[in-house]
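To whoever picks this up:

The nightly regression suite flagged Oxygen sensor histidine kinase NreB as changed. Nothing in the input moved, so I suspect the structure step. Input below, exactly as stored in the fixture:
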Amino acid sequence: MGNRSYEPSTVDTRWLGAVMDAAFFLLLGGALARFLLRHPGEPRTPWIIALSLVLAALHLLGPRAGDSGLRPTRRHKAWLALTVVVWMVLVVLAPSFAWCAVPLFYTGLRTLPPRAALALVAVLTVFVVAAQVELSGRFDPNLVLAPPAVAALATAVFLQMERHTARQRFLIDDLLRTRHELAASERREGTLAERQRLSMEIHDTLAQGLSSQRMLLQAADRVWETEPDKARSHVRTAASVAEHNLAEARRFVHDLAPADLAGGEGLDEALRALAARESGADLAVRVHIDGDGRLPQLPDRVRSALLRVAQGALANVREHAGAGSAALTLTVLDDEVVLDVADDGHGFDPAALPDSPDGGRGHGLPAMRARLRALGGTLTVESTPGEGTVLSAAVPLEAPR
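Regenerated output under the current build:
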């Protein structure tokens, strides 16, 4: 898109250059025709014709008026000096060639630095005035004042256009630079957001599964000699958690969707599967789904977020609460869906949690809040020491159309 921003200016410049070329050859041809009609057979005629051809050839060999970004070089300056000298000789021999200076004004202003260009315009104007006075045969104030006025006006307009073009080019360059910086900033923000999302996904899947396996295997090790049946139960539960964790890892690599939702199951079935997986000898997890009725179809992002919240909450219950039972309650209202996770553990004081990004509990609660906040939802934690904990996650739903 940045290149297209320059196209109109380049097209306009080339169009103006073509007009200047046409004007130059029309003026040159008109002056030559006027001279041949009024002064046929004079000794100077061959010189006039030869110099006219040389001037036309120089114009064709010089830099094109439509070339953008033209920087004066020694070759350009030498070409311009030779062109002006040939034109001056022509004007001295035949004053009718004076008006060929108009395209030379434009070429000089484009080729030379400002001061040198103004000096050239002044010299060309003097020659034009002298030629017009000589052609008229008498002194005419209008012929003396009009050419300088026209030259001054044309020069002022050209310089103003050049300044405007320079400002426009600067603004376009600045806009393109700003767009590139904005795109780079958006990419950085997207990368950071994706890193945070991946961090939460890893915490809610692999890390929690590994933590559960470790606790189950430690429990099995403690009772391996005294209660082998209970130890084998812990090992079987750890194996089940490992199998599910493997499915989560594969799903995580594939598209980061929860494995419990991969087969198109609803959130209620996913919560029941989670409860069955987390239930064991030391923790019983129950599920209550809005009166056990069939849930309406929830958006995929809402289902995934609430399931992750339930996984994180049960991981905290198993690791920190010391609870014997926990309950998952899912309620769908007209404008929001609410998931409550309650346990009968020893509880804690929410206000006493360390004021840190992870709240003193890894990525658990902050990850849940961030996940729900992305959906416009909220997370509420109610707990009292010795009386258990209730975690409530609410996500708004779009109004039905």
